[in-house]
Amino acid sequence: MKQMLDYAIDEFLKQLIEVLPPIASDKLGITQRVERAQANVNKTSSESLGRFAQLQEYSTIDFGRRAQAAIYQSLWLRELAYKMLPTAVENNHGETAGYDVQETTAALMTLLYATLKGLVIEFNELTSDVGALSGLRMSTTDLTEVKEDEVDESSSQPVRYLRCRASSTLWSLTIRGWNGRIEFFLLPATEIMRLSKSETPSRLKNVVQLHDRSAPGVWAIDSLPADPDELYYVVRNAFRHLVFNTVQGLKDDMVGSVMFENLEGAALRETVRELLMAEQNMAQKIVSQQEEIQNRIARDLHDAVIADIMALKRQLSGDRKLAASEMIEELDKVSAKLRDICHDLAPRDLIDWGLKTVIADLLQRVEERTGADCIFDCEGDLPDFPYPVQLHIYRIVQEVLNNVEKYADATRITVNIKIFDNLVRLTVRDNGRGFCLDDSTDSTRKAREGGTGMTGIKERAEMIRCFYPARIKFESEPGSGTTSVLEIRFREPIR
Amino acid sequence: MDRIGVLIVEDHQVTLDGLTTGLGREMDIDVVGTATTSDQGLELARDLKPTIILLDLHLPGSTGPRSTVKSFCSVDGSHVIVFSAENRMAFIQTILSMGVAGYLLKSENAAKVADAMRQVLSGKKPVVSLELLGGETKLTRSEQEVLRLLARGMKYQEIAEHRQASPATVRKQCELLLLKLGLESREQLIAWAVQSGYGNLELDP
Predict the structure, then answer these.
(1) What are the chain B neighbours of A373 within 8 Å (beta carbons)?
(2) Predicted complex: ipTM over 0.85
(3) Which one of A44, A230, A440, A474 has the lowest number of neighbouring Cβ atoms within 10 Å?
(4) Is the pLDDT of residue A19 over 50?
């Protein structure tokens, strides 16, 4: 364990300086602080970054550098996890396998704790900027191992949780890990005296679990293998819940309301307001989606159908009389357009024909319109998803293909559906223009993300998560096409 | 010549009447029964054991076209020919993959339908409306790519690798090509592709 960490830290240090700016800039959302910290990196790196322990000490030396340390710790977790997790733990089947699992759990717990602590340090510094918010101050409790009364059924050993905690005056976030499973709980701060009783299922916020016990090192969130980025976000999210609940709680008394008003413009904005906005946005979104749907129907009817019928009327009243066959042709066109509009609104075909066929049909229509070389590749049958899930999948594919058609200018489009174990992986790949995922000034990206596009797709993927663990990823580079991957892990039916 | 017993399952009365009359004029065809719902049709099919079941896709009282086709295809000794207005290829492919003997569009007249039945009984399967296939003009870009690779002497496996698709997908596509071009074997398909100049066209880099 020690060796493993040492090795990983050394590896990490070698890379830190190189990777710091690009990683920090976007994903952490704390760019300015990184920039400020960046100025100190070169002169302090040799002495202060020697070991993690020193990093911790260093963080207490002076106030201004705490944020820097926090960021280092977060980055450290991410980079370390990249380096360490996939291969470093050797698996010996049999006796030592359980030991490995424990070690891996402990290793990840150390990392998660470091991140949590980093977030708390950062948060405390942010709130200390505003006098009225000092009541929000958080504290952390170091990683400790506690033997519980319960006994693990599979190994008949007593459960020994590794636990750490971040607390405000009102709420406590605890992370406990044992035997390949790490759980996040949010509970009232008054109940921390009897943690194991207070950590009830209803307070469970998140679970990170070993993906495959025979190969310790790959962790999964919601049963999907997680990369270090995602592990980082789990901690960050849990921490946000802690902050959010605390702020909500404080709102009830006088002090709280003063604090709450002060949030506007305070440094806390990033962390807390996002959460508040998210709730409001949901209601807003539902309303605006309805509006949008109505607008679209109106637009489609106007552009396609009314225009065609008016044209037909002109032709009928003109000098040259239309032959019956021409008229039928025109009417066929109109009815085909109407059918397309109806079909888009309520995909009756989905119920009649099933997901696989309607996706094949979507692609064929794209092929007809674009003339691109379209390949539909699907072996086996899709599991019998509940209708809402099928609808979301269908809409996602529809939207992705829409984007490809509108922006990619592709000559080959592949829709590939793979079904293995209990995972469905749906990939839409094109060889078109592509765009720069990280560059917010990229016009193609803007266009693709505008409107209901990408956001809509992500929201639908979120909604699938109400039923199954699922995620969607996009990969793209200018000039080398775009790949969108939707993964859904479905449970085997109970036999 | 053996007489062909036909059961027509169709909920649209005018179409049903027209077909019954039209097919009745054919010398070798007997319309042995008609039904307007899926359940009624299945019952008759089991009782009458018709040679051919002419089946509409959208029937009242059925849970959907797939289940309708599936239950009729499981009637022993009868060939199912689907008779529908649905002209989108993805849907038709799904139906064809379920083991029907033919797929005819509702725009066909009775004489054409009768012809199709005779073809099915002479062993040609599946029989599909010409309008759906339309020969070379209706080939998609993707099919043209496959033809190009076939003409270059590639096997299914190689084509699949080249196109990053599964061999099964390529095989399916070639089957559809055979159908569209009215050919019977892969050898014929390759020969056709070469003759039509697919081998000479500009190759991918």
Answers:
(1) 141-142, 145
(2) no
(3) A440
(4) no
